[in-house]
Design goal:
alpha+beta, globular, catalytic activity
Length: about 190
């Protein structure tokens, strides 16, 4: 979640390494949202990109014959908007061929373990887990952290709302994929790599 509109190369250079200057993005809506996919042209070639409520990009790897998809998401907080969001990803699944990874802020949890308070609503967790089952994706486990978001208060609310999922083709092509967090700078989310 960038929370930014009209990302320029100058702004991008303020928080990404110099080698990463190509990007596709979806502007924020007010003070929330905004999605950015950025890459190094010496390592990946963009074949195509699609965006609506998410940003999807198909890449060719310059060092091999691998072609893969990356979809970055920022799921709406509104229950009414979530059905449209889920439908968009179902529709995208019909277009995507080969390895595919879906990553980002899902603004929802899978179980009570995903909140330090342990409080969840059954409809929230069922909707998310049913969607994952229907999409036939697996979660890439986060290896070094239980929670990915904090309200930054003295008695914090902690949740695991940032996640990465992958399809079977991704697992076959890249079976040793791992997920770790990066240091948090200014965001209320921990970045993942």
């Amino acid at each position: 979640e960038t929370k930014l509109n009209n990302i320029s190369p100058f702004k991008l250079a303020s928080f990404l390494p110099p080698s990463v200057m190509s990007f596709v993005h979806l502007d924020a809506m007010g003070a929330s949202g905004g999605i950015l996919t950025a890459w190094n042209n010496n390592k990946f070639h963009l074949k195509q990109s699609l965006w609506d409520r998410s940003v999807s990009a198909q890449f060719d790897c310059c060092a091999s014959s691998l072609t893969f998809w990356v979809t970055n998401v920022y799921e709406p907080n509104s229950e009414a908007d979530r059905d449209n969001f889920f439908q968009e990803l179902f529709d995208l699944q019909q277009i995507v061929t080969g390895p595919w990874i879906i990553a980002g802020d899902f603004n929802t949890v899978r179980s009570a373990d995903d909140r330090n308070s342990g409080r969840v609503t059954t409809t929230e967790t069922l909707r998310f887990n049913n969607w994952l089952h229907d999409m036939q994706v697996q979660e890439l486990p986060l290896l070094d952290r239980n929670y990915t978001w904090s309200n930054m208060q003295s008695t914090p609310i902690l949740t695991r709302i940032d996640r990465v999922f992958f399809n079977t083709d991704w697992d076959l092509a890249l079976p040793n994929s791992t997920l770790h967090s990066l240091p948090r700078c200014t965001s209320d989310h921990f970045p993942l790599k």
